[in-house]
Amino acid sequence: MPKLVTRALVVCLVALAPCLSARAQTPAPSANITAAATTRAAVDNNAEAASLDAVRRQLREQQEEIERLRATLAEQSKAISELLARTTQTAAPTGATNGARVREATYTVDGVAPTDALAAQGQGGAAAKNPQTEQTLEARVGALEA
Predict the structure, then answer these.
(1) Are the beta carbons of 135 and 112 closer than 8 angstroms?
(2) Are 67 and 59 in contact (CB under 8 A)?
(3) Which of 46, 67, 100, 115 lies in the 20 to 30 Å Cα band around 128?
(4) Cα–Cα dist 144/80, whole Å
(5) Phi and psi for 98 in degrees, rounded to 5?
(6) Reported pTM
(7) What are 11-55's pLDDT values in tens digits?
(8) Does residue 113 contact residue 107 with C-beta atoms inside 8 Å?
């Protein structure tokens, strides 16, 4: 019996050896697998190129928008400088008197100038110094007392 077991083991090892050697080898890549890998790489490259094109397009659009905003800003600053120049030109003649004098208007009713106590105090009693005003005030007070 020991001979039988030994012979069975030898037969098994001989049958097992080709299986193990076949398993250690890798098959050569087929044409289909290589074509699929090439196609996948091309699709990946196309996707990357498309995304780069999209980014470039967005950058171009943003640059055009920046240029439009710069042009608008230049127009607005020009308009502001023109308006400032106009205001300084119109302000200059108003500030100069050119010999013209400004005086306070005095109004009279039936030859009697109205008195304003606040204006008289603000002007340092200028209304009281007028002799005509003093006489009319005296006349009014006298009429009230009588």
Answers:
(1) no
(2) no
(3) 100
(4) 64
(5) 55, 40
(6) 0.34
(7) 777 777 777 666 555 666 566 666 666 777 777 777 788 888 899
(8) yes
